[in-house]
Write a structure and sequence with these properties.
There is one protein chain. By secondary structure, the protein is of the alpha/beta class. It is built from ten helices and twelve strands. The chain is about 40% helix and about 20% strand. It has a five-stranded mixed beta sheet, with helices on both faces. The longest helix is centred in the first third of the chain and has 28 residues. About 25% of the residues are buried.
Amino acid sequence: MHHAITLEALRVLEAINQKGSFAEAAKSLFKVPSALTYTINKLETDLGVELFDRSKQRASLTQAGQLLLKEGHDLLLAATRLEEQIKQVESGWETKLVIAKDTIINNQPLLEILARFCSLEKQVDITILEEALGGGWDALHSKRSDIAIGVTGELPKGQYQVESIGEIEFVFVVAQGHPLTKFLGILDTQQIKQFPAVVVSDSSRHLPQRSSGLFDSKQTIRVQDMQTKLDALIKGLGVGFMPIHLVTEQLSSGELISLTTSLPRPPIPIYIAWEKGKKGKALNWFIEQCKQQIWL
């Protein structure tokens, strides 16, 4: 199918509008003026409209010309971006990368890595997924992500490459003024179960879901991420365990109070993981940065 509007015609139209004359536009495009005149005349003939008002000394666009230039500018940008992406893919850089970050990890370390990546000026679209518990493994398993940060639990064998990035310690916390703060000594299950437990739900879609930090309670309040859990705990809606690195400020300010319990909540190692054999310069760059980053 023949289209009257071509990228070359749009480039000519844009140059004439910017330079104000066919002669100056021809110089900027390294062409002779007659070539530009031919291109515009053919475009006007094929479209059946006048694109330039030639009654004045300076070449000015008609309404039709203005509309074509406005919409055509986006096409030129898209074409330029496509050309750059093709060259980028050929050089080994992907056009997109999806990162699954567990909600147990602070945003700041990942944002620092992203800032460094942006300075490389590579046209790679980045998507960050917020996952919880088995959600990171699920994102890798279902091909929803290229790399998972902060995954925990039993490590799948053979399919993924994993790298330890630290160990998370937990603390049992309640809001300032919560009834449990009046108890002295070590809290047991009977005392704790009188209050709602705030927990983060597993975000797995395909793999079996698992639970973490659950204990007997009269009610369970499930939320999607650690920030919501933190807000709920500060508000006194319930009680629960939190990673120490996520509540340092709240413990210092007194918004949250840490209490000693008889409930077991040992530290857990966390990892970054990616599929073995998967290649790409962007993926490899992020893997190396993740290994060097301080996460906790």
